[in-house]
Each structure stands twice: as structure tokens, then as C-alpha cells.
Amino acid sequence: MRMPERHDLLEFLSRHFIWVVLAFTVVIFGLTINGYLGLANIANILITGSVLGVMVIGQALCLMARKLDLSAEGTVSLVAVVAAWLMLPYRETDLAQAGGLGVELDPLIVIPFILLLGAFIGFLNGFMIMKLNMNFFIVTLAMQLVLRGLALAISEGAIMPGTPAAFNWLGGGRVAGIPVSVIATIGLYLVFGFVMSRMQFGRKVYAVGANEDAARASGFSPARTVILVYTVSGFLAALAGWMLLGRLETSVPNLGIGLTLNVVAAAVIGGVSLKGGEGSIIGAFAGVLFLAMVNNALNLMNVDPLWVNAVRGLIILVALIIDAQKSRYRGRAAPQASADAQKAAAS
Amino acid sequence: MAEARKTRESDAVLLDMRGISKAYPGVQALEEADFAVRRGEIHGLVGKNGAGKSTLMGVLMGIRDADSGSVVMDGQELVDASPQTMLDAGISYVPQHINLLNTLTVAENILVGALPKNRFGLVDWKTTYADSQERLSRLGLRLDVRQLVEGLSVAERTMLAIAKALFNNARLIILDEPTAALSRVDIDLLFGFVRAQQEQGVAFIYISHHLEEVFEICDRVTVMRDGRIVGTREIEDIDVPVLIHMMVGGGVKEYERESTAGAQVAFEVRDLSRRGAYEDVSFALRQGEVVGVSGLQGSGVDELAQGLFGLERMGAGEAFVDGAAYRPDSPRAAFEAGVAYLPQDRHRYGLAPLRSVRENVTYSVLDRLVGRLGVLMRKDEQALTEEYIAKLGIVTPGPEQQTLLLSGGNQQKVVFAKLAATKPKVLILHEPTQGVDVQAKVDIFNIINDLSAQGVAIMIISSEVRELIGLCDRILVMYAGRVTHEFSRAAADMKPEDILLAIEGGAVDADA
Which of A126, A165, B291, B455 could be A227's S-S partner, Cβ–Cβ 3.0 to 4.6 Å? Predict the structure, then answer.
């Protein structure tokens, strides 16, 4: 048995870094903020974290495949508006408030419809990127604009309050005192954690993200994999939109604006690299917890909202710096490690 | 008399490199290399891939640090070599793929960084064009300076790159495979220009695989092999066969494989043609047979390999695997038909570097490792990976090691394992020993041997003629898109000199 080398230690730290940070955060906030670790506040953190959490899964998949989905927050706002519009009774739009289309569809029809809508939007993204050879950054950015524009046009820029209770169950309901949204989010993390580590689909996503050409030469179809990844991302964004609307019970134009950067940040903080091919769902979960905890603490500490964005931005930058250093460090470690392996084999 | 000649020569020496050595982990890239260029001469530098030419030139350009040795230019030793000191000393490099600002005009390319300004601080175009035109005509180069560089032919771009070097006071210009993409007419144009500059006292180092051209334009030629200088000759004292002999060397064969060829044809290709790549290629591989295919860059060998594996279009014609029609539209289809391909560029097509040995080895056979609902069977995966780690002798701390942390030879074995796991009927290997150390080379030969003994038909595309002779039952040579020669162990005509001559496009005497 050889001694753990420096690069093994660093590799280990970089992979599990987020858990160390998370533990520190809990201790520091727990000691300094009154009531931070109280049940009510923990529930609060988890509830606000769950919408973010659902979206992070989709984004993490995209990042693992060395792509990015900037359209997800647009999907959130569009499906929320569409859902409210299809469910609420008709009402003359006045200054601040609008009514629905007047068809007053049952939530049981509307929910599958918006989930499919989200999946379809994701499919379109994937199709344009892989089949029409378009740049993922621009495609999803433009798509976000389209979706936001549609949401504003349909809602006429006004709020639509009063979504039905059955619809609100996912975002606002509780089972045995535990928020449904939290249960659902944790459930999704378990499912996708399994999918990414133990199923063929997950293996292909990592392979495509690590080296698309090699994945193709190994008999995979990168196009099929990436299109599926975007479809899943769209589906999850729609689910997040359903969850958020259910919690607010009111459709707000510009719902979810600025979420994207938080979502990407949570994934990257959790160890999902922007350079593709690595990271884990459980790590992304830790990233979500961290960000939700920090956001909550900023609230409780009454940090001037004008400063909150600066703090968040700083956290994101630090996460990106660590991500960039990781690959730089690797470039130096690789020859050393191979020399070590040769030596170990020779002895 | 001899004395007089010697002094004249030492006066004439422009560049003198002495005792240059350079080692990389596991490889001695240069060993005590002495290399000298006279004023105003065109000096050929030849040798197989990996002979040390690029390392030597890298030292000369200041992009590689030599472990020992000295570089003297014009009687002055160049210490502290950096690209800038070498440029300042008048040494310039013109690469095979010319680096110019393609979307700008010829004039802008010439004067870039020093465009004349008028009194408003804007570019003075009139002076720019007049100035650059005047500079070019001084060199006897007729080009419209208002033309965009992207509109120039490859030969014109090469000449423009040489001209730019001369404007920067270059006195020694390294030309790296300048004719690889040129027609005969363009070659004449380029050579005319190079000779004209030579008459003005400029010296050139001419690197090429095309030996005929070396004889056409060079005054002297230096041959490298395995990191050493084999010798330098006046061009009139030497001919192509002697030059090839110097390149190949007379050492013993490194490896001699027993033939395992069976009787049944496993892979057959009939009249395969793809425009601009290869034409009327036909051959057959028997089970357990190992066939080498060799050719220069642009001879169609690389394209043929990619076409046969579905990475590119296969083109017109037919192919058969075990008698069944074969026309892959993707690597997946190729795998399913029983054809596997080891890519030349393992970093691009071979490995997912961030992922583990286990994942890389099993990529090609995931379909066989999934249970219900697409769940991977971890135990089978583990067993398969450990089987191949043992079989191929992959040196790794374990199956979970990231492949990027393995040495080149072990990475190559991981790719081999991925292919072998598909149990192919036909295996196409593209430069399988490139960039691997000596021990890994021998291991790879053994793997080839084992697979062929199991009846796999193996096609090895390689420029390592000596290795091919040791491994192959037959060797096909491609030139300009066609299979031009076949050598075989049965006919006992696998002589390195003949094969290299055929690769260069020469005619091989049947009873030589």
C-alpha cells in the first residue's frame, strides 16, 4: 500500500470540500444568529431551498454534459403564468391584477400539461443545439427571452392571484407537518442520485461531458443524450414553476427572475464543474443547502437588500475560482501521478 | 586543399548547434545532437516521426529548453534561449499550417503592429498599401496587398509568411512540411521564391517527408533517427535509397510475431472511394491475420480508417464483415457489426480523461451490463474491468483511478481494453504505439499477438515501418489515395528500404 499522495489528498478535499464548508456554515450561523437552528427556521430554509433544489438537478445534468441551460428560469415563469391563466376565472384586467382565460381547467389537467410544456421547451433547446449545431449558450439565452416575453404577454404584466388548493398542494401543502415541497425535492435528489451514479443514462451523460468525440467513438449518440438532458432540465424547471406558484398562490410576472445564476452557483459550489464530465447529484444537493442557508442568514441578519446581491455574487465568484483552479491543478498533477503509479508497479 | 576547404566552411557556418540533449520522462528525445547550417544554404532535415526533428527545432526556436549543449548563431552563443532571443538572432519558423490574420489584407498582415498613421491618428491606408507593396516587390513577390489573406492560395500564404520573417530580419528560416498541401505548379512557385531568397544570402532549414523534394531543393541534408543525428551529406553525394537506409537504420527487428492467419476471410473491402480521400481501395483480411497499412499524410490512410469505423462517410464501394454487407453510419453501427477502432488521437477519440478506468473500459459494452430499467450491474462491471486490467497489464492503483492520471502507455491500454471488451471480429489500430514508452510498446505488441491468435483480423495503420515488419503478415502501402504496393512475409519482400520508397511514392523494383 502506498502512502496517500498530495494529489490524492487535494482531490479528496476538492471533491468533498462543500461538506466541510457546510458544516462550518451551520456552526457559525447557529452560534451567531438567534433561532437559526430552530425548527421553524430550518423548515423555512428547506422550503425556500426546494424550488432552487429542483432546478439545480436539471442544471447539474446540463453542466455534467458540458452544457448550460439559461432558459430554465424562463420556463418557470412561463409555466406559472400559463397554469394560472388556464385555471383562474376570467376577469377584466385592471391596473395590477389580471384574471384567467376563462376556461377554468382542472389542476389535474393543467399540471401534466405544464410539465409536458417544460419538457418540450427543453427538447427544443437540445434539438437546436445538437441537431442544428447551434451554440448552447446563445440558444438557451434566446429561449429565456422568448419564454419571459410570452409570460409577460399572456399575463399582460399583471399578477393573477388565487390558484386552486389542489394545485397549491405541492408548493404549500404539508404531510405530517413536513412540507410536501421538501419531501418531493429530497425524493427527486434520491432518484437522480441513483440515475446518475447507477444507470446507463448517467454514465452516458458523464461520458459526453468529459469528451464528446470519445463518447461517440465509444458507440454513444451524444445528440440523443444531450437532447434528453435538456428535456429533463425543462421538465424539472416546469416542476419548479409549479412548486413556486403553489407556494405563492399567485402568478407574478417575472417570477424566478435571476434564479439562473443561483442555480448554476449552487451546482458549481457543490462540485459540478463548468468544464463538464464530473460532479455528483449529492454534491449539488449540498450546494443548494449551502446557498439556501446563506440566503436565509442574510435575511435574518437584516443585511441591506442592496448589499445581498453583492454578497451572493462574491460567493459565486469564489466557487468559480475554485472550479477553475481545480482543472489547472490537475494539469500539473497528472504527469506526477502517472510517474508514481509506474514506480508503485515497479516496486 | 582539404585544409583550405575546412577554413572556408567554418567561415560559412551560420548556425552551429552542438551536443544538444533533451530528455522527457521515459524518452531520450535528443542525444548529443550536432547540427550546423551554412550561410545561404537550403538544408534538408529528414527522419521518421519521433526521430527528434521537432524537438531539435523546438530548441532552436527557444520553445524547448535543452538539458545540455550550445547554440551558436553567427559566432555568438545564444544563452537563455527564449522565442524572443531566437527571433532577435534572426531565426524564424514557418509552420505547415500558416498562421496569418486571415480576415485582414496582405498589407495589414505585413505591417501589423506598425501601421502608418496620419495626423489624426487614423491608419494612413495610402502609405500602408504603397509601403507594403514596395516591400514585397523588393523580395520579388507579386501579390496584391489589398487582397484578403483568406483569398490567397496556400503557396502564396507560405511565401507571405516567409516574406514577413524576412521583414523581421530573419537570416535562417525553418520551413516545416511546406509542400504538404501544394500542387506541382505551386511547389515550383514556392521553390522559385525560396531560391531567390537563398541567393540573397538567406539560409533555410527544410523539413519534409517528401524525399524527392529534398533532393530537388536542398544543398545538404541531415538525417535524424531515435533522437540522434545519423549524418549530414552533400546532396550530390547521396541518393534516395541511401537516404532511406540512413533514416531506417540497420538495427535488429524489435519484435517478430508468428503468423496466426487462418483461411477464412473476416473483412473485405471492394473498390472503396471517397472523393478527396481515397480511390478504388480493395483488400481482404483473413481471420487472425495482421495487415499493416502505411502512407504519408494525405495518402488517404487516415481517412480510410475513420471511414471504415463510421466516424466519417465510408464513400462509394462495398465492405463485408464475415461475408455480411457492412456500411457503418456511426461507431455504434461499427461495433455492432464487430468492427472496433483504436483512434490515433486517443485524447480526442479515445478517453474520457476525468472518468475512471472502470467507466472507460465499459463504455463500449454498457448494453451488455445493464439489468432491468437501465440499471448497471456493478458486479459485472467490476469483474470485467479487473479482468482487462489483469489481461492487458494496465498499471493503475485501481479501477476507480481517473484515466488522466495514468501514463500514456496505460491510457492506450485502457482504450485497447474498451475495444477488446466488444469481442470484435475486426480491429483497426491507428498508430497504436504513438507516444507510449518502450515497455508499453512491447505490451501492446503482445496484446495484438493475443487478439490475432484468437482469430481477430487486425489492420494496423502506422508509419512505424520497422514495427509493421515485425508484426504483420502483409503490408499495404497507400500513396495519393490508392493502394500502390503490397509486401508480404510469404513473398519475403518486406524490406524497410523498399517499403519506405513505396511510401514516398517511388517505384519499387520487383526483384530488388
Answer: A126
For residue A283, count other CB atoms closer than 10 A to its CB.
23
Nearest to B294 by CA among B494, B27, B512: B494
User: Do the domain assignments include residue A96?
Assistant: yes
Structural domain harbouring B89: 11-103+148-248
Q: How far is B366 from chain A (nearest CA, A)?
A: 7
Interface check for A219 against chain B (CB to CB < 8 A): the answer is: yes
Joined together, the cell numbers standing for residue A1 give 500500500
Is residue A281 classed as helix, strand or coil in its secondary structure?
Answer: helix
Q: Both B74 and B216 in a single domain?
A: yes
Which residues of chain A make contact with B418, given a CB cutoff of 8 A?
218
What are the pLDDT digits (tens) for B157-182? 999 999 999 998 999 999 998 887 77
Residues 6+ apart with CB under 8 A from A295: A48, A308, A312
Chain B nearest C-alpha distance from A5 (Å) = 12
- Measured distance between the N- and C-terminal CA atoms of chain A, rounded to whole angstroms: 11
pTM of the model: 0.79
Q: What is the ipTM of this complex?
A: 0.84
B-chain residues near A217 (CB < 8 A): 309, 311, 331, 341, 343, 349-350
Residue whose C-alpha is closest to residue B412's, from B454, B360, B462, B459: B360
Residues 314-343 of chain A whose Cβ lies under 8 A from any Cβ of chain B: 330, 333-335, 337-339, 341-342
Query: B184: burial class by Cβ within 10 Å (0-12, 13-18, 19+)?
Result: exposed
Same-domain pairing of B38 and B88: yes
Q: Report the distance separating Cα B406 and Cα B404, nearest Å.
A: 6
Examine residue A41 and state whether it is found in any structural domain, yes or no.
no
| φ and ψ of B79, to 5 deg | -100, 165
Strand order in the sheet with B27-38: B27-38, B13-24, B68-73, B76-77
Q: What tens digit of pLDDT does each residue of A227-279 get?
A: 999 999 999 999 999 999 999 999 988 888 888 888 998 999 888 988 889 89
